[in-house]
Write a structure and sequence with these properties.
Oligomer: single chain
CATH topology: Rossmann fold
Strand order of the largest sheet: 3-2-1-4-5-6-7
CATH superfamily: NAD(P)-binding Rossmann-like Domain
Shape: globular
Largest sheet: 7 strands, parallel
Distance between the termini: 36 Å
CATH class: Alpha Beta
Structural class: alpha/beta
């Protein structure tokens, strides 16, 4: 099977049981990667994604772990190392929302979002980087346009995703001497379960602000992630690619 990636390339996708993560796992398999599918809760949904990967002739490995839990993340990467030995690509996608205006936001809502989205990105990136030392590799963080431009009602989410972007830019500088590239995809409004929670009036207003006039599809984000993770992007690191239908400038 031909594709962007060389035969035997091994990739990990976090939060891969649904939405953007599932689409990324399939896109990487379509382009020649074996894919480790991280999930937190639904093994059934993760297995559905694994079946799609296997149908494409690639290996799939299921790895259950809450990315905000250091012990679980460490155990996940240990299992990955034992089962596969090497890791070439990591797409760090796990994320949650718990929206609300800052003045009324509880510390619980703040902490649970930052813990998963930012601390989880730190923990998974740290272990991925360790496994890529010596052999190089590519990391792609899935952030959000909220982390670039902010969004009313998403103080915790925007702060966490802005932190992910800063983390990625720093890691790109640290990883470059070791052959590790690090980039970010920042989606706008994408047709996922997370976005379906947005109230109708707010969604209508958002669509009016998108020059292309529609929400994006998970597969459109996935193709951007696969490109940045692959050899066609071999001279790209430390960059943020927005996939948002032109919603924010730059």
């Amino acid at each position: 099977m031909s594709g962007l990636f060389a035969e035997g390339t091994r990739a990990l996708v976090t939060g891969a049981s649904r939405g953007i993560g599932a689409a990324v796992a399939v896109a990487l398999a379509e382009q020649g990667c074996d894919v480790a599918i991280n999930y937190r809760a639904s093994e059934a949904k993760a297995e559905e994604v694994a079946a799609r990967v296997r149908d494409l002739g690639r290996q799939a490995l299921l790895l259950k772990a809450d990315v905000s839990d250091e012990a679980q993340v460490t155990a996940m990467y240990k299992e990955l190392r034992v089962r596969w030995g090497s890791l070439d690509v990591a797409v760090l996608n796990s994320g949650i929302t718990a929206d609300g205006h800052l003045a009324a936001m509880s510390s619980t809502k703040w902490n649970e979002v930052v813990s998963t989205n930012l601390t989880g990105a730190f923990l998974t990136a740290r272990e991925a980087t360790k496994q890529m030392y010596g052999g190089g590799g590519a990391l792609v963080f899935i952030a959000s346009t909220s982390g670039i431009a902010g969004r009313a009602g998403q103080a915790n989410y925007a702060a966490s995703k802005g932190g992910v972007i800063a983390l990625a830019k720093t890691l790109a500088q640290e990883g470059a001497p070791r052959g590790i590239r690090v980039n970010v995809v920042a989606p706008g409004f994408i047709d996922t379960d997370m976005v379906k929670k947005v109230p109708g009036a707010q969604m209508k207003e958002a669509l009016q602000a998108i020059p292309l006039g529609r929400m994006g599809e998970p597969a459109e984000v996935a193709q951007a992630a696969a490109f940045l993770a692959g050899p066609a992007a071999s001279y790209i690191t430390g960059k943020v690619l927005t996939v948002d239908g032109g919603m924010i400038p730059g």
